[in-house]
Each structure stands twice: as structure tokens, then as C-alpha cells.
Amino acid sequence: MAAAPPPPPCYVYSAEYVARCDALCKVPQRASMVHSLIKAYSLLDHMRIVQPKVASMEEMAAFHTDAYLQHLQKVSEEGDDDDPESVEYGLGYDCPTSEGIFDYAAAVGGATITAAQCLVDGKCQVAINWQGGWHHAKKDEASGFCYLNDAVLGILQLRRKFERVLYVDLDLHHGDGVEDAFSFTSKVMTVSLHKFSPGFFPGTGDVTDVGLGKGRYYSVNVPLQDGIQDERYYQICETVLKEVYAAFSPEAVVLQLGADTIAGDPMCSFNLTPEGIGKCLRYVLQWQRPTLVLGGDRGLPSCQHGPVLDLLDCSHSRENVILRDPGS
């Protein structure tokens, strides 16, 4: 008897959630553009839409400090971008404060927690929050456009059921906030492929950064230089992940798919295509472990369509199929 097909991916979405994410000044209207492409390609027919919850203060405090959350809530309510205390919390140029920014952070954090809970409850094998993946935020500090580290909150939610969780970060930038959060534990392994060069944000993620204490050798960093293309990137990704999987044997996976590695992105660093990223995605999915998929903290809307379409097609079919932009 043939094995039953896996349940469809859970896609965390609501009109209110997308509208909230659209208002983020650094990436305006990106959320609605991504969802419009997903809808236009009829990919909603292959997914189960799940309404996101909003994270409570208690849920966000599972990682972030009370002082940071209370300050973020205060400046959000007041719309104050000049509070002198904001500097110590990383709020300013890269992370400007504006009215409603706390509600945005709570919405993204809640959406990732919702997606993780779908995996905990066994409702799906792949859960997607494409507006998540804000991997730079620290427990008491905003950083690199990231006000709340939803990836960490998602991992903590998965750890309620799964003993070992693997975090794989394919964003152009080092996943420093997630690595820092779990640098002392052997229960979460972090793997980051990223650009690493003098003066490039966030300046961390050297190959010698391997974790601390009980977490030593549970942080894996793969620093890369400009210009890398699909074939070499996938070769490195597969080689590293094969060893990681064999050594760590994860029970669940969190995958951050930043689009700023794509050729044509304003960062002008890596030269990947959606097909290259899709190949890395397929490699992770063939493990058939509960997988939480998150977007990235950068990348403009014009760079997002490829990863979105490839991601969702691979997630529901697990076949070697690439959906291409009709204009390509």
C-alpha cells in the first residue's frame, strides 16, 4: 500500500497581519506583494491557511527582557523617535521607532509561534511564516531592522515537544541573534551561511565561532565572499548540512530563507537564483522532519517572488519543480 501523502503546509496568513507588516517603513508593501504572488500562482489551493495569533507580553518575554519590551511598547504608544533611552536598546537609525511598532513586533512573533505550534500539534510537516525570520534582534536590543527575534521564539516553541532543533540560516547576513540566544546549549544547533568581510553587518560569524560552554561546536558558521553562484553555494550547503544532520540528528528544523542572496538584490553581493535556493530547500525537506520556514529580514519585493514560489511549490509537492515568473 502506498504511503499517505503528507498533509499540506500550514501558511500563516490574515489580511490584518499582512497590513500590519506592510506598514514597516524599511520594507513597505513587501508583505502584500508576496501574498499577491502566492495567490496569483494558485498556491493557496495547496496549503492550509492558519490565522496568526498576536504574541502576548509573556510569550515575547520567553526570550526578550521585560525592560526592552516595556520600552518598545512605551515608544510605540507615544510614537516617540527621540526618547534618550532608546539608544541603549538599539532603537534608532537601523531600527527607527514609530507609532505601532510594538504591535508589529507582537504580530510577527505571534505568527511564528503560531506556525511552530502547528508543527508541535502535528497539523503539518511544513509551516510557513513568510513575514518572519528577523534574526538579528537580541534579548534586550533591536538590531538590523529586527525588533523582535521571532526565529528564537519559534525555536523555543518547538522545544516544548522536540528535544533537538536545528536552525539553518541562508540569509546574506549572519544569523547572530539566533546564534547568541542558543550559544550555550547543545539542544539547538545553529548553521549560518553568510557574507563575511570587513565592515559588513553584523561583523560576526567567523568560521572560528563555534559556540560556548555546553554549546561548544553546536554553532556552525560558513563565511562566504562576494560573487558566489548556485552550484558552489549548493555544494557547500549540502556538504555542511549532511555532516550536521548525521552528527546532530535533529527532530525539527527551522529554516530562514532571506532573499538578499539573490542576484539583483540591492546588496549586490551573492549571485544566486531562486533555483539555487530551491535546491537547498529541497535538500532540507527530504529529511522529512517538521520544518518551520521563515522569510528574511531584508530584500526588496522585486527580489522576493522567486524564493516564495519555489518554496511553496517544493513544500506541497516535494518534487523537482520550479515555478518561474511568467515574465522570465
List keywords for this structure.
globular; 8-stranded parallel sheet; 328 residues; 10 helices; alpha/beta
Describe this protein's structure.
This protein has 328 residues and is an alpha/beta fold. 35% of the residues lie in helices and 12% in strands. The chain is built from ten helices and eight strands. The chain has an eight-stranded parallel β-sheet with strand order 2-1-3-8-7-4-5-6, sandwiched between helices. α7 links the parallel β4 and β5. α5 packs parallel to α6 and α8 runs parallel beside α9. The longest helix is centred in the middle third of the chain and has 20 residues. The N and C termini lie far apart (41 Å).
Brief characterization of the structure:
With 328 residues, the protein is an alpha/beta fold. It has helices spanning 15-22, 30-40, 57-60, 66-78, 101-120, 150-158, 176-181, 230-248, 274-285, 305-317; strands at residues 10-12, 48-50, 126-129, 165-169, 188-195, 219-224, 252-256, 291-294. The protein has an eight-stranded parallel sheet, sandwiched between helices.
Largest sheet: 8 strands, parallel
Low-confidence stretches: 299-328
- The CA-CA distance between the termini, in Å, is 41 Å
* Total helical segments: 10
Q: Judging from the principal axes of the Cα atoms, what is the shape?
A: globular
CA-based gyration radius: 18 Å
Number of strands: 8
Measured as a percent range, the helix fraction is 25-40%
Q: What is the mean pLDDT?
A: 89
Series of H and E elements:
EHHEHHHEHEHEEHEHEH
